[in-house]
Specification:
Elements: H1 18-34, E1 39-43, H2 50-62, E2 68-73, H3 76-82, E3 91-95, E4 107-111, H4 122-130, E5 135-141, E6 147-154, E7 157-165, H5 182-185, H6 193-206, H7 214-225, H8 235-239, E8 242-246
Parallel strand pairs: 1-2, 1-4, 2-3, 4-5
Antiparallel strand pairs: 5-6, 6-7, 7-8
The chain binds S-adenosylmethionine (SAM).
S-adenosylmethionine binds next to strand 2.
């Protein structure tokens, strides 16, 4: 079967997806720990397989040593280039697209992939990647991974939106607007819920200036923000510069 999708730019970087790996270990750790064969697909790993290598190493340390990661790429040149880094059975690289090359993973990470597709192809890609029951983490970040946003998708439907930033670099929450998932980036205009969310978060940030540094400011921001929006998860996640809300967009 021909892989579903199209070859796009392969930009990637070491540690770019560190924040997302940490979230996957937190959000999907129990799921992976309870799986008979814990398999994670890293879809669209890019010009080099570094982020797939890091994902496997982080999950093996944080969740379970026998976790397997398969990096799937639609570009056969990138699949061939990754082979010297394979370490089977824990780490493999194969050609594949949104159909997941016949694999049945517990978790799929697809980062900086859908942003290069037309928005009207997003819903079908979400449905295809979750058809076998996987939890999908799909999102976008900057080149160094200092600012990121992602959706958790189950059974084709988005469940949550997460915003995550290295707080020492966060000038203002408005910066998240440039890195929203493809499903939201064109909807950040007045009258749309994602615009309301970023406006509320920005107002909370402006009202939370403190001499005690960016982490304290962010924590105060989330405390204000959650009076209007239900922030999920424990404050330990907020301390990491992360904020997750139910998907109501
Ligand atoms: C910008 S790179 C992202 C690399 C890495 N995930 C990261 O975030 O640093 C996007 C990669 O996704 C691949 N890609 C695009 N559509 C795909 C699909 N449907 N299935 C598998 N790979 C795909 C492209 O060939 C490209 O190498």
């Amino acid at each position: 079967m021909r892989p579903l999708g199209a070859v796009t730019r392969g930009t990637t970087n070491p540690n770019r997806l560190r924040r997302i790996d940490n979230f996957i270990a937190y959000r999907c750790g129990d799921l992976l720990a309870g799986a008979a064969h814990p398999l994670v697909v890293d879809l669209g790993y890019g010009a080099t397989p570094i982020t797939a290598i890091e994902l496997r190493s982080r999950l093996a340390t944080a969740v379970r040593a026998d976790v397997a990661v398969v990096g799937l790429e639609i570009d056969p040149v990138r699949v061939a280039g990754a082979q010297p880094f394979a370490d089977p059975p824990g780490l493999q690289f194969r050609r594949g697209g949104f159909e997941l090359a016949g694999l049945a993973p517990t978790v799929v990470r697809a980062f900086n992939v859908l942003r290069q597709y037309p928005e009207d192809e997003v819903a079908a890609a979400w449905r295809t990647m979750t058809a076998g029951g996987a939890v999908l983490i799909e999102g976008t970040c900057d080149e160094l991974g200092r600012i990121a946003t992602w959706a958790v998708i189950e059974a084709g439907a988005p469940a949550t939106l997460t915003l995550s930033a290295r707080l020492s670099d966060l000038d203002h929450p408005a910066t998240f607007a440039e890195r929203l998932p493809k499903a939201l980036i064109h909807h950040n205009v007045p009258g749309h819920p994602i615009h309301d969310l970023l406006a509320e978060l920005g107002a909370a940030w402006e009202a939370s200036a403190t001499p005690f540094g960016p982490r304290q400011r962010w924590l105060a921001t989330v405390e204000r923000f959650r009076q209007q929006w239900p922030a999920q998860f424990a404050p330990a996640r907020w301390r990491r510069g992360e904020l997750t809300v139910p998907w109501t967009f």
